[in-house]
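Internal ticket #5521
Category: modeling
Description: The requester needs a full-assembly model to guide mutagenesis choices. All entity lines are attached below as received. Residue total reported by intake: 247.
Assigned to: D.W.
Attached entities:
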Amino acid sequence: MPDTDPDFSLTDNTLTHPVLTEVLAQLAAPRVHPTAIIEANVSLGRGTSVWDNVHIRHDTTVGDECIVGEKTYIAYGVRIGHRVKINSMVYICTAVTIEDGVMISAGTIFTNDRFPRATTPDLKRLRSSDPDEHTLPTRVREGATIGAGCTIGNDLTIGRFAMIGMGALVTKSIPDFALAIGHPAVPVGAVCRCGQLLFRYTAGRPPARKRVECGACRRQYVFNAGQVEELDGATTPPPRAGARSVT
Ligand SMILES: CC(C)(COP(=O)(O)OP(=O)(O)OC[C@H]1O[C@@H](n2cnc3c(N)ncnc32)[C@H](O)[C@@H]1OP(=O)(O)O)[C@@H](O)C(=O)NCCC(=O)NCCS
Ligand SMILES: [Zn+2]
């Protein structure tokens, strides 16, 4: 009898064992609270947690290692990337796309119809809630944060690593790395990937050209007429196909 466990195998530098494989699979499996409602054709990624009373409608995709906080509603056909953090009581409607690493704080509401009506003009028929020519898209690009209690308009993009202050009303696209606040939200400064404020605009205007180093993480940037260059080599990929460009 060999004194080693015959179930262990070492292939391609990977140690495998049936029990270990099972434990790893359980750790990777999405965790869904029993009170959550997950409709048909919803894809939940590895390690994603869905908390109590969440409702995720059909044909929605949530990536790996996400958190969907309690009492959040995600409509049908929504695309959510990896490592996205969604706090409690967030309303995400159809035609919203959320890229990797986004944070959406509690009580935030997305919208997708600019001039909504419940019924046909004669009040005789309820209008369908399915997407139609009135349904307008919203994209939240990678790394962005939306503060608590925001309302997000439609036909717009929140840029990469942008930060929307608590309670904001977003009616227009927000540039990459911009800090935006207010009603309506306007950019008032710039933030680092790490979340640190880099600088505030003077007289409400972005700088023509400014080189800046983050006081917290030492990342360096050049801000140039609304464009952001990350000097440590990170690149700004263009929006994915179908996305509206940031203005
Ligand atoms: C926008 C934000 C990042 C600014 O932080 P800050 O740079 O430390 O701002 P300060 O507190 O120094 O305030 C600077 C000015 O902005 C105002 N201000 C701050 N946050 C604001 C907001 N969300 N909306 C409108 N004005 C705001 C302050 O009243 C102050 O105004 P004043 O110059 O007239 O006195 C922060 O206030 C915020 O909203 N963070 C998000 C918090 C959140 O939602 N977290 C959710 C997870 S817990
Ligand atoms: Zn930083």
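Resolution: model delivered.
Comment from assignee: The first helix runs from residue 18 to 28.
Ticket closed.
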